[in-house]
UniProtKB/TrEMBL annotation:
It comes from the Bacteria. It comes from Trichlorobacter ammonificans. This is Cytochrome c oxidase, synthesis factor. Keywords: Membrane, Signal, Transmembrane, Transmembrane helix. Gene3D superfamilies: Glutaredoxin. Pfam families: SCO1-SenC. Residues 34-59 are annotated as: Disordered. The keyword Signal applies. SUPFAM superfamilies: Thioredoxin-like. The chain crosses the membrane at residues 252-277.
Length: 290
């Protein structure tokens, strides 16, 4: 490899690195260089004063493990039911509390909007269960919440397709501990993760979904994996990397700058590795001069 050729390769690599740097800087969110952006609804849990971060609050994913099916709750009619008796197939579970006026409403409302787009039949192919982690809540509150979200679906939906449960502190803790869900009461409200999960018919946790908005393809794929008993990775993390949610347009926008920068960096790295390997091979084949 001649000196001129090596110089040309170095110049190309410098150009690729400069382009990648520009793309990465351009892909940074507005205000990232010191100016705080307005928090999304996913992180605005409650009104002032804002919840303080706590080590007691978070979510430890337990993909492949089973939730506590023996935990008992009260349904909308006040009847005590075993959680495992309600999970006979793929099930979407929403840990919430019904008096929450913020993210829990967004979470359940976001799911209600996407359910009509699913091809699977509610009640037979899958089921949704909202479980309150506030032990003070009653079946009457669960009934009012059910009416609200079944109305919000704005399409025929069986009442047994979405159940709303309340329970005692011991059973609530058994359930939340089994799914790795950690929350903390703060005054009359709760600080808690904004997440839902999908389990198979035997209670195996297949996937966690984060945030208050849903994509129908995410739900459909997760339900398919739950039906087949497959444990999937959290697709939402990949979606969050490639897409940015536009709260005004209520849609996901493809983040072409971030993805392009990643592609450029990977391509430059692969190209450099290729040059190093081919250069080493050529030097090993060239006979040494006397």
């Amino acid at each position: 490899m001649t000196a001129r050729c090596r110089l040309s390769i170095l110049n190309h690599l410098r150009l690729l690195c400069a382009l990648a740097t520009v793309l990465l800087l351009t892909a940074l969110p507005a205000g990232a260089a010191g100016k705080e952006t307005e928090p999304s609804p996913d992180h605005r849990h409650h009104a002032a004063p804002p919840p303080q971060p706590s080590a007691d609050v978070g979510l430890d994913e337990r993909l492949g493990s089973k939730l506590d099916l023996d935990a008992r709750f009260r349904d909308e009619n006040g009847t005590v039911v075993r959680l495992g008796d309600l999970i006979s197939g793929p099930t979407i579970i929403l840990p919430v509390y019904y008096t929450c006026t913020n993210v829990c409403n967004y979470l359940q409302g976001g799911l209600a909007r996407v359910l009509p787009a699913l091809k699977a039949a509610a009640g037979s192919d899958y089921r949704v269960i909202s479980i309150s982690f506030d032990p003070s809540e009653t079946p009457e509150q669960a009934t009012r919440t059910r009416k609200m979200y079944l109305t919000a679906i704005n399409a025929p939906f069986p009442e047994n397709g979405w159940r709303f449960l309340t329970g005692e502190p011991e059973d609530i803790r058994r359930f939340t501990t089994s799914i790795g869900y950690r929350f903390k009461q703060q005054g009359r409200d709760f600080v808690h993760p904004v997440a839902s999960l999908i389990v198979s018919g035997d209670g195996t946790i297949v996937r966690y979904l984060y945030g208050t908005s849903f994509l129908s393809k995410d739900i459909s794929l997760a339900l398919l994996e739950a039906r087949e008993g497959k444990v999937g990775t959290t697709i939402r993390k990949v979606v969050d990397f490639c897409f940015t949610f536009d709260p005004q347009g209520k849609t996901y926008v493809f983040n072409i700058l971030k993805v392009s920068a990643t592609v450029v960096i990977l391509s430059a790295g692969g190209f450099l590795l290729f040059l190093l390997l081919t250069g080493t091979r050529r030097r090993s084949r060239t006979p040494e001069e006397p």
